[in-house]
Automatic annotation (TrEMBL):
Signal peptide: none annotated. Pfam families: Thioredoxin_4 (PF13462). One of its GO terms (molecular function) is oxidoreductase activity. Gene3D superfamilies: Glutaredoxin. The chain crosses the membrane at residues 32-52. This is DsbA family protein. It comes from Thermalbibacter longus. Belongs to the thioredoxin family. DsbA subfamily. Keywords: Disulfide bond, Membrane, Oxidoreductase, Redox-active center, Signal, Transmembrane, Transmembrane helix. It comes from the Bacteria.
């Protein structure tokens, strides 16, 4: 036997056979990968087709909560609530997406209405400082559209009742229109108002007015024209009482 020859081990395939087997296995893996990719693409296409062709429910708007705005015989003039002859004017600069404004509206404002507005001690005005996002601006415009029909406060209350967070779809055009339906507005008039964005300039002008007065956060309160630095509700009450005692 020649010394340079390599002896074939019985039962073990030759190198050529091993290479052929490896190539076959690699080709099989490539076919499986291609097949898997094709299946994945086909499944994705089917899902897209199902989603695109599923029957429309006709109601893609998130549910809207109705609220009862019962201010009794308290005088209202646009966005001002209370006796026009009240000696103290309290102005809130707010944003409908502002969490702190929501807390004030739901927790503290009812007490303010009962103790000071309904008793004729103060009149209260809400001003828009729409700065958090586009939904803030659109909600403020919608409130002005409701104001055109004499229902600012009903719509104002409904907006806050349906706040779900900042820029998460609380105040889309469709949802704002659903709120208008719940409030009982003339929908043709409201839709025309909102779709035309005719109050956009007014909302921006209010924001700029707030900035000129030093408003840089919401809610910010003014009592008889004086901006307050408050941390607690009692700070607002103290300022009101000070004006009443002048």
């Amino acid at each position: 036997m020649a010394t340079g020859a390599r002896e074939q081990v019985p039962g073990r395939p030759s190198r050529r056979a091993q290479r052929r087997l490896a190539e076959q296995q690699a080709a099989r893996r490539r076919r499986l990968m291609l097949l898997g990719g094709a299946v994945a693409i086909a499944v994705a296409a089917v899902v897209v087709l199902i989603l695109a062709n599923r029957p429309s429910t006709g109601d893609e708007v998130a549910p809207v909560q109705a609220v009862t705005s019962d201010y009794g015989d308290i005088p209202r003039d646009g966005r001002v609530l209370g006796d026009p002859n009240a000696p103290v004017l309290v102005v809130e600069w707010g944003d409908y997406q502002c969490p702190a404004c929501l807390q004030f509206k739901q927790v503290l404002f009812p007490q303010l209405v009962q103790d000071y507005i309904a008793t004729g001690k103060i009149r209260f005005e809400y001003r828009d400082f729409a700065f958090i996002g586009e939904e803030s601006t659109l909600a403020a415009e919608a409130a002005l559209c409701a104001q055109e029909q004499g229902k600012f406060w009903e719509y104002h209350d409904t907006l806050f009742a349906n706040q779900r967070g900042e820029n998460v779809g609380s105040f889309t055009s469709a949802r704002l229109k659903r709120m208008a339906e719940i409030v009982g507005l003339d929908m043709g008039q409201f839709n025309s108002c909102l779709d035309s964005r005719r109050h956009q300039g007014e909302v921006e002008a209010m924001r700029q007015e707030g900035q000129s007065l030093g408003v840089n956060a919401t809610p910010t309160f003014f009592v008889n024209g004086q901006k307050l630095q408050i941390r607690y509700y009692q700070d607002l009450l103290n300022a009101i009482e000070a004006e009443l005692n002048r």
